[in-house]
Amino acid sequence: MKSESKEGAGLLYTAMGLALASAISLGLARFAYALLLPAMRSDLQWSYATSGALNTVNAAGYLVGALLLPRWQARFDGRSVVVAGGVGACVTLLLHGLVRSDEALFVLRFASGVASAASFAGGGLLAASLAQQHGGQQRLGLILGIYYGGTGVGIAACALTVPLTMSSQVGAAWDGALALLPLTLADWQRAWIGLAGLAVLAHLGMLAMTRGLRLPPMPAEQRGAAPLTGLLFGLLGYLCFGLGYIGYMTFIITLLHEQGLGAPLVTAFYVVLGLGVVASSWLWAGLLQKHKGGRPMATLNALLALATVLPVLSSHPVAVFASGALFGSVFLSVVASTTALVRHNCTKAAWASGIAAFTIIFAAGQMVGPVLVGLVADGPGGLQRGFVVSAAVLGFGAWLASRQRALA
Asked: What would the CATH number be for the domain defined by 2-213+220-402?
C-alpha cells in the first residue's frame, strides 16, 4: 500500500512539473498578449486588424512547429523537445520587451509560436505516455487535466505580474537602473521582460520535477498512421474551436477596457479565468475518460459559445466574471479532449500522428481567428460583433463534434 501511495505521489509530482511547460508555452508566451494588447495598441497606434495579425503570426509559427514536431520527436527524446521549446519561449519573451518595431514583433511572435508548439504539443504527448505507463485509462483524464491546467497557472500568474511590472513605481525603478544606457522602455516592454523572468523560473521548476521522465525517439518507420478519415468530424469541430476561442483570448481584455471595467476588476477577471483552467482538471476528467467519441468536444464547444456571447449580452461584472469562469474552466479541456480522442481510438504507435493532425488543424484555425475578429471589429458593431461571430463558429463546431463516433 505504501509503495502504491508513493508511486501515486510521484506521478502527480511529475505531472505537475510537466504542467509548467504548459504554463510557459500558452499561459505566458501566448495568452499574456491579451493583457498587454491595450497598452501596445495605444502606444503603437494599431488597428484591431493589426492587433489580431500579431496572434495570427503566432499561430502560423505554432503551425510550423506542429509540422516539424514529428521530425523532432523521431530524432530526439520527447522531454528534450519540450525543454528546447521552453528555452525558446523564455528567450522570445525577453526579446519582446527589447523591441518596438512592428516587423520585429511579428518575427518574435512567429518564433514564439514555433517554440510553443514544441513545448505544448510535445508535452501533451509526454502526458499521454505518462498516463499509459502509470495506470493507463483510469488516470488518463486526470493527468491530461493537470497538464493542460498548467496553462491556467500561467494565466493567473500573468494577471498578477503584468499590472505590477507596468506600475509607475516599477517604471521609476527601471528608469533609474537604465539611466546610463541609451534605452527607454515603455510599460508594456517592462511587462514582457517581467514575464520572461517568470518563464525562466517555471522552466527551471519543470526541469527539476520531470528529471526522470523519458520518451525515446520514435523513427518514422515505427510510427503508425492515425485513421484521419474516421476522425474527420472531430478534426472539423476542433478547427472551429481554433477559429472561435482565439478571438476571445486575444480581445477579451480590450473589450473589458472599452466597457469601462477598472484595472483591479480586469486583473481579477483574468485570475478567475486562469483558476478556471486549473479547476478544469477535475471538472472534466470523468467526461474525457468515459466517452470515446466526440461528445466531450461537442459539450465543451457549446459551453464556450455561451461564455463568448455573455459579455456581449451584458457588461455587468456578474456576467463578465461568469463568462471568464466558464471560459477558463472549459477551453483547454477541448484541447485535452483531442488527446483523449486519439488515445481512445488509435494504437499507441499512431498517437504522435493523431496528435500532430489535431495540432495542425488547431493552428490553422488560430491563424484565421484573430484576423477575422479584428476585421469584423474594425467595421460597424466593433468588438461585440466580432465576439458574436466567434460564438457562432464555436456553436457550429459543437454540432460537428457531436457527429464524431468512437472507432472500432
From this structure: 1.20.1250.20
